[in-house]
Write a structure and sequence with these properties.
This protein has about 90 residues and is mostly helical. Helix content is about 95%, strand content about 0%.
């Protein structure tokens, strides 16, 4: 049989859990209301906005990668030319 102290602790824990549950339910209700307030047009507008931003970022990334490849290739050519010149100077 649980002691009086254990029962009080259990009741306190249940009370805290009930408070947390009520707070979570209220937060959920508020978020649901915010989502319900959005119209389909607003949601579509947001999708378009973020899709466009994503496409622009993808394009910039591709271009950046191409510039990196071009510059690495140029650096490799310069290094090969330098090696060739150093070798020909020794002969």
């Amino acid at each position: 049989m649980p002691s009086k102290k254990e029962l009080e602790q259990g009741a306190g824990a249940l009370s805290d859990n009930e408070k947390d549950t009520l707070q979570a339910q209220e937060a959920l209700r508020m978020q649901s209301a915010n989502l319900a307030a959005l119209t389909t047009d607003e949601i579509q507008e947001q999708v378009t906005f973020w899709s466009t931003g994503s496409a622009v970022a993808e394009r910039a990334l591709q271009e950046s990668r191409m510039r990196h490849i071009d510059r690495k290739s140029a650096a490799d050519r310069v290094q090969m030319r330098q090696t060739t010149l150093e070798t020909s100077d020794r002969n």
